Input
Amino acid sequence: MAFTAQDVKALREKTGVGMMECKKALTEADGDMEKAIDYLRERGLAAAQKKAARIAAEGVVLSYADPALKKGVVIEVNSETDFVAKNEKFVSFVTDLAKTVLATGVTTVEELAAADYMGTGRTVTETLNDLILSIGENMKIRRFETMDGIVSTYVHGGGSVGVMVGFDVADESKAADPAFAEMGKNVAMQIAAMNPEYLSKADISDEEMTKMHSITVDSALNKPDSLPRPILKELTDEALGGKWSEEDIKIYSGLDAKQLKNFPNFISKEGYAILAEIAVSHKAEIVDNKIFTGLVQGRLAKQIKEICLLEQEFVRSDLFEGTVEGYINDVAKKLGTEIKATDFIRLTRGEGLEKKQENFAEEIAKQING
Output
C-alpha cells in the first residue's frame, strides 16, 4: 500500500515522532496507518530500553495544586540534558503527570507508571516511551510527593527547585483571596531560597536537639578563640605554662591588646591546635560554666532560626519585617481569619544523582580520529 507525504505528516501529528521515523514506520507497515503507529510504539519501547542505561540527572521539578481536589504534588522527572528540560513536549508531559497523580491517587512511581495517562487509554510508561523515541533522550520519573488540603506551590529556576506548602485556614473561603495566594507564594519562595529543614522548633526531635547541642559544644571547644574571654584566658595561661613552643610563647607574649583579639593570625597552626586540645581536655568543667552555657544556647537559638521555617527571618522585608510566622499571622489578621502553616515539601532537581561528566577534548579527538 502506497503512502503520501500527507500520511507522514498525519502520523507525525498523531505520535509526535520525527518525520524520518514516521516515514520508516509507514514503509515497514506498507502504508497502513494503524500498523505504523503500533510499529512506532514498539520502537518506543526498544528506544527506551536502549537508552535506559544512560545517565538522566537533568530535567525538571514541578509543583502543581488542584484547589478543587484540595491536593498538591511535587514531581521530578529527569532527562539527560537541560536542553530537553526546556522542551515544550517534555514540560507538558510532566505537567500532565502531576495531574495524573492527583486524579488517580497513586502513591508510588511504580503505580504511576502503570496508571492511565490523562484518560488516553494508554499507560504512563507507554506514553513516556513514545516521548523518549520522539525526543531521543533517556527520561525517568524519579519521585513525587503529595499533600492534602489547602496548598500553595512555587517552581524556581525553570524547574531546578519545586516547593509545596500546606496551610490550615480557619475560614477556608479566605483561601480564594488574592492576598492569601500572594502570601502562600511568598512563603513557598522563602522555602526555595532558604531551604529550611523543619517547619518549626517543635518538629525537632529530642534526639536531634541533643545532637545539635553536642555538635555546637564540640565546635566551640575546637575554636577556642571564640570562647568567652574568662575561659580563653585560663586556656592560654595553661598553654603559656609550657605546652606551647618557645616561639609561640614569645610571639603571644609580645602581642598588644589589639593583636591579642586576633592572636590565631600570629601563632603557629600547631600552637592553635594545642590550645584546642587543652579546651577539649577541660570539656566537663567548661560545659558546666554558666557563661559557656549561655554561649551555646545563643548559638543553638541562631541555628534554629536558620533551619526552622517559621522562625526564619522573612526575606521579603519590603513586605514585612519579622519572622515567617509573623508574616503569616499579619496576613491572617488582615484577612480576618487564622492561618497556620502545617507542612512543606522541597525537592531539588538531580539531588543525589550522578551527573554525566563531559570531556569535550576527548569527544573532539574521537571525531578527528574517526
